[in-house]
Amino acid sequence: MAFTVRPLTTDDADAVHALLRRSSDCRREMRRRDATIEDGLGLLGPCVPLEGSGARCTHGLLDAEGTLRGICETVSHWPAPGTAHLSLLLVDGSARGRGLGRLLHDSVVAQLRADGVRRLRTDTLTAASPGVPSTAETEETEETEETEETEETEGPRERDPVGFWEHLGYRPTGAPLAALDRSVEHPARTFLRELVPVVPEPRAGLHHLELWTAALAVTAPSWHWMLTTLGWTAEPVPGWDTGRIWRHDDGSYLVLEQSPDTLGRRSERRGPGMNHVAFTVRSRAELDALRAEAPAHGWTELFSGAYPHAGGPDHTAWYGEDPEGIEVELVAAVVPAAAPDGAAEDSSRS
Prior knowledge:
This protein is of the alpha+beta class and 350 residues long. The chain has two domains: 4-194, 3-Layer(aba) Sandwich (Aminopeptidase), CATH 3.40.630; 208-332, 2,3-Dihydroxybiphenyl 1,2-Dioxygenase, domain 1, CATH 3.10.180. Helices cover 22% and strands 27% of the residues. A seven-stranded mixed β-sheet has the order 1-2-3-4-5-7-6, with helices on both faces. The protein has a four-stranded mixed β-sheet with strand order 8-11-10-9. β2 and β3 (68-76) form a beta hairpin. The longest helix is centred in the N-terminal third of the chain and has 15 residues, at 100-114.
């Protein structure tokens, strides 16, 4: 299903109100009361100037039927020029588990980047906060979604704002601080994400990798899920309907293009040329989670009977191919066990 991200105005107040009412997290923020139309209006209207050069704006994620599925509120160039503060990220509970939160977040980030923003920040409340769960708890990670019935039978769920924001490429900074929210002080923590990495000096490395596809509409969703889950950022290119770009924090980027010169319908990794692309995953736990989710995003697992050591006993990895047969390897960043000198990697995979 196609989605649209656009700035919201007061004309969208009813849609925002409906979204807030559908959100159990929003009800927790409002001390168990239902959202009102005034709550929706409070998120809308023209960008509001703040102290300094900052300006607030709320973007919405709408599906093909025009239903509002998510909202993201940001303050650009605040608290300092080049910095943007993300104050709210909320996705319709009925649409969770589909990557919509990341899609909305990345689309807004791309617009902020075009506006000269180089750093993102957000303040998230800690588990000890008695009120609003925080932005991190509002847009739950897709892997930990639970039903309200589970919450009612098992009690309130301990959430992990650190894990959520790290999943989006943010890093916690310093100790928890006191933040003023709705006239009540709560313990809070600031998270930062650098959009333009600081490189001490020029260094050799991969500039970009370009892959061709016979059907962009088929393969792009698979690659978008894979790369954004790994921390890459989608970079829309206005007017370019036959390609997609995702950039890594180190400056390298991957291109997926449907060229009119593409030959055939599938990639053949066993022929001359590139065999596969490999990416690093931070832990075995993340590797297992990606493996579990990959089939729902168009990836077919390879060498499943030998997981996670199809590449050798000291190599922890998952192998899969996209809808057109391009192979990807995800390698868990673990310390390998000691191996005898000259030990060869298992060649059971191809």
